[in-house]
Protein 1
Amino acid sequence: MDMNYFKVVGGMMAGVAVGAFAGMLMAPDSGRKTRKKIEKEAEKLQHNLNKDINESLDSFKKSYRNAIHELETKTRPIKVDEEFAAK
């Protein structure tokens, strides 16, 4: 998976978090309500981030397995002359 994908997803998640946090701080709610909102948003953000990380990790694992399989099927073992190798 391309590293730009991770940068874009990370940037989007950070932007959402900062925007939500700033919006809650500007809201005319009491401190208790604002803290509850921040807690809920943080939990949502954590859940979404974990989901994105797991999906990316699964995609990476699949790509890795495919690359290994391709290498195994497109290459053949190298025969080594035992006498030469012993020298």
Note: The first helix runs from residue 3 to 26.
Protein 2
Amino acid sequence: MQNSTLFVAVSDTVTGPVQSAGDFTNNTATLTNLDIRGRRGSDTPALINSNIAAPNILNVTLASIQTDNGATVFGLTAFQFNRLLRRDSATTIVPPAPGFTQDEDFIIRLL
């Protein structure tokens, strides 16, 4: 997923990463499963400069992330994540409280 946007129930006026709860149009909307694997046999990261947002994101698996994006922030935003697995770091990440987790330019924002 490169230079892409996947928004669920996000206002049409939002063009970059979702910044606040007011950017969502339906707080009960849910993205159930998101699995970004990349191409088999490719060294290209699976997630590059892309924004994904939904009020509720239940299960996310990311194979690899290009975290250096030339100081342009990108990433995931939700009110709730049930499980977020980063395979390139072999860790399950769930932000423990509202706020964000950042790795270079890649951000996981929990509103």
Note: The mean pLDDT is 90.
Protein 3
Amino acid sequence: MRGSAARRGRFRIKADIRRGNSGGPVLDLNGLVIGVVTAKVNTPKVFQKTGRVMRNIGIAISRPTVLDFLFQHLAFFVRIEHVAQFWNMLDIGPIRAKPRQLR
């Protein structure tokens, strides 16, 4: 996105955004969260204004913008690295099912 939308921490994604996708994560190729889905482009409205058909275009809020919002509103969240550290501190180890022996 260019202009004011990009400055406000939003970016365009090529995805089939459907009802209920808002709030879902936008992942990069490594599976890391880079944003949050917020909307989809209104194809009929864009076509009426520009004559261009824009399919499967969504709008997302960037990760830094989301984190800034969470910090400003004192939202509590846990980074996945901290969950893994906590799990290791419990020293439980991996859960393994014991094979069942046939008699």
Note: The first helix runs from residue 4 to 7.
